[in-house]
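DM from R.C. (forwarded with permission)

"hey, sorry to bug you on a friday — could you get me a structure for this? deadline for the figure draft is monday and I only need the backbone to look sensible"
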Amino acid sequence: MSPEIMSTFVALAVTVMILALIFAILNLARSLRTKRDVRKAYHKARSRFYFGIFMIAFAVDQVLLFPTLVTYIIVLVLLFFGILNMIYGYKASKYFKGNLPIENKAWEEFEQQKHK
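My reply, with the result:
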């Protein structure tokens, strides 16, 4: 692989890593700030999804920069856990997103009872 193409892939992987880490931290902060349980679980699931993307991009970056046997073993572990985090995060966020309207309705009823 030519150095120009390799540096482009490395730069792309680093960009994806930075963006995924920013979104993971943003969703984690949102989950810590909310008091609603379903919304908290939804943001944690989204955070796991983005952290999985970060792990996969980090693995790709490492295999491009350091092509050794030890790196390949570590990359396999990172890819495995990154894919698991992405799958779990996607499925959980899809599940909790479907429950957000139910929670909103319950919170509205709770607020109405609280102000009576």
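R.C.: lifesaver. Residues 69-114 form the longest helix (46 residues).
me: no worries. The mean pLDDT is 92.
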